[in-house]
Specification:
This protein is α+β, with helices and mostly antiparallel strands. The protein folds into two domains: 72 residues, Alpha-Beta Complex (Outer Surface Protein A, domain 3), CATH 3.90.930.12; 82 residues, Ribosomal protein L6 (Outer Surface Protein A, domain 3, Alpha-Beta Complex). 22% of the residues lie in helices and 36% in strands.
């Protein structure tokens, strides 16, 4: 059995889980999420837990078992606590600020970048060099953070760019160090 898949998902107080056909809907204090479960996976809702089961021990079914258990657990956690990703801007003149609901980024290009977040995503700028992305859908929060990071990913020579908070950027020696014969 899948170690992840066989663990029951506890349903927190204030969260309602409903199943209609293949669609699972999870509603909580922060919002509502819905997902269409794969036809091979069966979901059973008992009192305060969600149980996910698979029809056989085929590799494909084992993979789906753990996947859908994790996705449903993320939905339950999302409507209760929510998810947050933090980004840092590193570089001279790199700034972020909110213009209405849009995020304006100055990343060393000849023009500012305006980014409109999708529905259900909240973006904050606690300082000019920090961005906080939050929402109830874990995949969407991660996707928005990756999209903003893709505008100017951190480069290995000076470390400038948009990076995740706590991300380690592996640095390289520049041309001067390589020309002098220094081994790094």
């Amino acid at each position: 059995m899948s170690r992840v898949g066989r663990k029951p998902i506890p349903i927190a107080a204030g969260v309602k889980v409903a199943q209609s056909g293949r669609t699972i809907t999870v509603a909580g204090p922060k919002g509502q999420l819905a997902a269409d479960v794969h036809p091979d996976i069966s979901v059973e809702i008992k009192e305060n837990t969600i149980l996910v089961a698979r029809p056989s021990d085929l590799k494909h079914h084992r993979a789906l078992h753990g996947l859908w258990r994790a996705l449903l657990a993320n939905m339950v956690r999302g409507v209760t606590e929510g998810y947050t990703r933090k980004l840092e801007l590193v570089g001279v003149g790199y700034r972020a600020e909110l213009k209405g609901k849009k995020l304006q980024l100055l990343l060393g290009f000849s023009h500012p970048i305006l980014f409109a977040p999708p529905e259900g995503i909240k973006i904050e700028t606690p300082s000019q060099n920090n961005i906080t992305i939050s929402g109830i859908d874990r995949a969407l929060v991660g996707q928005v953070a990756a999209k903003i990071r893709s505008f100017r990913p951190p480069e290995p020579y000076k470390g400038k760019g948009v990076k995740y908070e706590g991300e380690y950027v592996r640095r390289k020696a520049g041309k001067a160090a390589a020309a002098s014969g220094a081994k790094v």
